[in-house]
């Protein structure tokens, strides 16, 4: 690989019992979760490991993976990656890659121990000793590289905020070269630039005295939509640093504050302990709405005021902007038909094919997200 500061990554393969493999509380997947904070010496405790396992099972499709392992065993197609860690004079293997699969495996073994399930002998045998890759030179850069390759472009993608952290670290490790980062993770450098711009806006927004506390990873979608639209960058007076994108500046902080006000309930106030009314909804509830709002920018401040008082679509119509016709129901029907036509052989194949399983997981995630979005607009 050219022009990268990464050192050679050295693996060795070993077989190990699952109880010596530790789930990692600092895994980037948990950046937007309420994962517990603990010291290194506490990682191997049942309390920490069980809490991580619970979060994975409930929030990251761990139960679906568990069901797959229950039916076909723990496949060697895609080995987990660990680094060695010594805790109280005992050697463990801390996961770098594979937290979801090992959490699912551990929970399944717990069910077997408690006589909740009975497994086929060959499946149970596949769970007793796991073949893993051990990373012998587990530097900060190499760990991020492995995770980035798997989850930015891989078959089990992180959420967008977690991806931004991986891109940031790879960018810093490769002398601020987005082209090299793109080569490493197989992404267009333009996408990396947009993620880094969004990080700059996100970090500046966190400093806002009135709205900074609402700037959390669950709002990331709004920031990436700002960053990839030249109209919004111009509105914020985003001044880009050519030497280091992360040192770019936002000159119009008033507009940034105005944008943040669109993300909170009308009754939101840092000075008030009053709980917002049920009918109060933010002006924006999904990042994609910024695609429509940006059409109002060319009509000046008056158009934005109309949006703030009347809503997106009345403001668009008032200023002569065409509202795009909805076409998604037709596409959803086609997807439903494709799933209904899956036969038993297709299902068996999907159970053994992580790429196909990932597609279904992604579809499941998006459906849940869209239902949550729609619920925000229901009376």
Which key features would you list for this structure?
379 residues, alpha/beta, five-stranded mixed β-sheet, two-stranded antiparallel ribbon, 9% strand, disordered N terminus
What is the element string, with H for helices and E for strands?
Answer: EEHHEEHHEHHHHHHEEHHHHHHH
Task: From the 3D structure, determine the CATH topology of the domain at 11-138.
Answer: Conserved hypothetical protein from pyrococcus furiosus pfu- 392566-001, ParB domain
Helix count, DSSP H or I runs of 4 or more residues = 17
Strand arrangement, largest sheet?
Answer: 1-5-3-4-2
Termini separation (Å)?
55 Å
CATH class division of the domain at 11-138: Alpha Beta
Q: Any idea what the shape is? A: globular
What would you say this structure looks like, in words?
- This protein is an alpha/beta fold and 379 residues long.
- Among the domains are: 11-138, Conserved hypothetical protein from pyrococcus furiosus pfu- 392566-001, ParB domain (Alpha-Beta Complex); 328-375.
- The protein has 17 helices and 7 strands.
- A 5-stranded mixed β-sheet has the order 1-5-3-4-2.
- The longest helix has 22 residues, at 354-375.
- It starts with 10 loop residues before the first strand and ends with a helix.
- The model is unreliable at 1-7, 151-158 and 270-279 (pLDDT under 50).
């Amino acid at each position: 690989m050219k022009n990268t500061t990464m050192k050679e990554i050295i693996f060795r393969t070993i077989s190990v019992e699952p109880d010596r493999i530790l789930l990692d509380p600092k895994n980037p997947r948990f950046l937007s979760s309420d994962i517990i904070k603990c010291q290194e010496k506490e990682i191997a405790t049942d309390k920490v490991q069980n809490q991580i396992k619970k979060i994975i099972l409930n929030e990251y499709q761990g139960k679906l993976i568990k069901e797959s392992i229950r039916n076909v065993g723990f496949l060697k197609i895609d080995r987990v990656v660990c680094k060695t860690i010594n805790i109280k004079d005992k050697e463990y293997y801390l996961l770098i890659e594979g937290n979801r699969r090992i959490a699912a495996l551990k929970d399944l073994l717990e069910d077997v121990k408690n006589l909740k399930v009975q497994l086929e002998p060959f499946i149970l045998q596949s769970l007793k000793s796991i073949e893993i890759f051990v990373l012998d030179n587990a530097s900060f850069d190499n760990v991020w590289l492995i995770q980035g390759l798997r989850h930015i472009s891989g078959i089990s993608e992180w959420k967008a905020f977690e991806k931004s952290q991986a891109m940031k670290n790879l960018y810093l490790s490769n002398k601020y070269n987005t082209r090299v980062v793109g080569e490493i993770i197989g992404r267009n450098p333009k996408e990396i630039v947009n993620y880094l711009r969004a990080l700059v806006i996100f970090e500046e927004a966190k400093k806002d005295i009135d709205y900074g506390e609402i700037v959390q990873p669950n709002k990331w979608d709004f920031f990436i939509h700002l960053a990839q639209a030249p109209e919004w960058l111009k509105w914020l007076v985003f001044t880009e640093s050519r030497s280091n994108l992360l040192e770019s500046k936002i000159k119009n902080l008033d507009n940034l504050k105005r944008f943040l006000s669109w993300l909170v309930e009308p009754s939101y106030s840092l000075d008030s302990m009053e709980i917002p009314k049920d009918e109060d909804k933010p002006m924006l509830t999904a990042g994609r709405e910024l695609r429509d709002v940006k059409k109002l920018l060319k009509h000046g401040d008056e158009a934005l005021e109309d949006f703030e008082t009347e809503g997106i679509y009345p403001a668009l119509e008032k200023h002569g902007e065409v509202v795009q016709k909805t076409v998604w129901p037709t596409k959803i029907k086609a997807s439903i038909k494709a799933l209904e036509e899956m036969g038993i052989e297709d299902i068996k194949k999907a159970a053994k094919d992580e790429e196909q399983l990932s597609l279904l997981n992604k579809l499941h995630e998006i459906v849940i997200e869209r239902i949550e979005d729609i619920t925000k607009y229901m009376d």
